[in-house]
């Protein structure tokens, strides 16, 4: 892969370019516009060839900084050639006094392939209109070539005045670099800037840059572990390194950050780390720009595999090539975070000492260092824990863990020197340290703290302590999972899980998680719960199931942390089963008694049930923003209450028939204001499954809805209700029954942009279908959501009545949407008769796409399968849809040949053949020939 490095001269033949431009001048001695038009293809060709050479060299040597330097050099030469042309042939007298300087990133001598070019045209004190014409000539050529040019035209006096008033302009001028023209003006600007602007203003500049950094982090997601990071603006990205450079240059008046080693600000090792991180991030950014053909700064999923390939990453057992590349990225981002945090905090500390009265962010550290009660190793230095003397950690390595414990007990932040000392002392955390009883006791205390354990764990992770103390944890530091479901790296996800657990325990999440908030008070072993929260995904990235491997890790690690044998087994069980409750709640019919009995057999005790519920809630919440919603909470609560009843011996022993009869009596009483005839008609509409699974409140609502529809003479109707807390909107459809009814409803929802979360499907005794479709809520305000739901309901009615054709509306929705080929989701079909006593359960798993549910239910109808309930679950780019089915006479599918046929037909759909299927979808079901026999339905539903 390595090739001999090319020289700058080989990127662009400047002499030949100048000669070509001079020839154009001779050919057009009096025509400026003609000359410009003739120059354009010459300059475009030179730019394209030079940048292509830089791209090829990026693949040859892999250096991002070299690539950025080469592109910057090419840009310098083009601007210089154009300037020379203007000064020689177009505006010879006017342009001589002007200086062209690079500012911003370009001023540092680095340019990404798609970056803007920031220029400062420095003018002499006396500016003439013709000087502006000369600048315009240069700018128009640059724009015509295709460059995005940010520019300012100012005198030195104006630059000084504006930079005093505007921090953005001040930062830009800080990086001024001479390109061509009157060099004396640039030298004057740099000299006066140092004397008149930077002198005695370092504290102001540092405070502004740190505040700007914090706001930038907030906008970019406030985590360096987002799995689609912003390479330029995100936490741990290039802008963080640039902030460090700006502050160093402003505060220490250095031209190159390597001088910080001489000044003692960074060690040689830290400087090398800075260089490596800078080079790597520039390489990623340059590859992104070249690959997308635009200034793309976010490392999106769809380009990650290609960039991993460009970096020559290969898959290894447990980790794909892209996951290995992204782990490298996040480790670099972590290094950047360490460098910028320590460096920026150290400078802030320096400025505090020099100007203690500055106030604001720094003013709160005005008190002198004081002793911390109960320890002689640490001191409280203006709200930050610091070492009492530099030799503390070396004398007693366990003081590394004690530092975090004392900080937690006293709610202290960390002095930058203390963190630097910890980072430089990581080699002290050896096997003896890991086996030390006090170190493990202190760590368990930090983990189970009733204050803010997530904050301390994150600080420990950033300092490298967590990975050194728990070698198993070190393996998953900065590890990403290449899917759209997980928003963070594995280590960040685990720490966030602990944070959510702490919030629930401290009552900070009672509105979001009422049940978890209530039952956590009854959990006897909070230590085991916190350890399980931290370790539940610790075995990610291994070939075997991470739950099984994680349980094995727990059995080894928990005794070291001081947990008893009973606690260890509880932690191991929780890790082994940490996905169980989530999967059962989201992919199984919770009204099917077999679901509850099977789940209860695995859980076995109320304590396990409580702990598993809380851990499941924390795990889902920690996946990322928007993953948790009230509907998932409702599913978990339903499963919890049903299982609690069974485990406590309170499950009803009354027969289904008796319970159904009682349900009819309750519905009759609830409709006491109706005539006896209406009571009799509308209570006899429903079969056992409906009476036993639908709450009485909903049965009453449905009865009013059906009666009103009948009175109005409607053949079909829809009813809408929103559930704000559950983040779900409910659409109930009353329609003549039809084998493809669910398929048509699902297609209509897809066409309207609604994501279905669940479907309850019932048939009435008079041959109609009463289907309730639950869709994910989109708007926070009920009025807006009701309008959206009404639109979806109207779409369903239009499709069912044939006013709109389903293939056409789905095709319209799909138009312009790219098929997601980024993620390797293996299509799968599973058929089981063991998950339900009455139904065959068909589970399909594949990559999500518009209209998929409509397609799959259409095939199930073609196969003469009656769908009794459906559970629709989305995990990022992957969907798992579960259907409880019977044949048309209500029996399970027991024939192996028929099961194989079902599986094969469904797999053909999973491979993505939507167009063919949509063409077969009916336009509507209201026309009599398409109506299904009510007799068949009665037998099927009985």
Automatic annotation (TrEMBL):
Function: Modifies, by uridylylation and deuridylylation, the PII regulatory proteins (GlnB and homologs), in response to the nitrogen status of the cell that GlnD senses through the glutamine level. Under low glutamine levels, catalyzes the conversion of the PII proteins and UTP to PII-UMP and PPi, while under higher glutamine levels, GlnD hydrolyzes PII-UMP to PII and UMP (deuridylylation). Thus, controls uridylylation state and activity of the PII proteins, and plays an important role in the regulation of nitrogen metabolism.
EC number: 2.7.7.59, 3.1.4.-
Comp. bias (Polar residues): 931-942
InterPro entries given in the database record: ACT-like_dom_sf, ACT_dom, HD/PDEase_dom, HD_domain, NT_sf, PII_UdlTrfase/GS_AdlTrfase, Polymerase_NTP_transf_dom, UTase/UR
Uridylyltransferase: region residues: 1-371
Annotated HD domain residues: 490-612
Gene Ontology molecular function, alphabetical: [protein-PII] uridylyltransferase activity
Protein's name in the database: Bifunctional uridylyltransferase/uridylyl-removing enzyme
Lineage: Bacteria, Pseudomonadati, Pseudomonadota, Alphaproteobacteria, Hyphomicrobiales
PROSITE patterns referenced in this protein's UniProt entry, alphabetically: ACT, HD
Location of the region described as Disordered in the Swiss-Prot/TrEMBL record: 920-942
Organism name: Peteryoungia desertarenae
Cofactor: Mg(2+)
Limits of the ACT domain: 730-811, 841-920
rRNA-binding found in the keyword field: no
Keyword terms of this UniProt record: Hydrolase, Magnesium, Multifunctional enzyme, Nucleotidyltransferase, Repeat, Transferase
CDD domains, per database record: ACT_ACR-UUR-like_2, HDc, NT_GlnE_GlnD_like
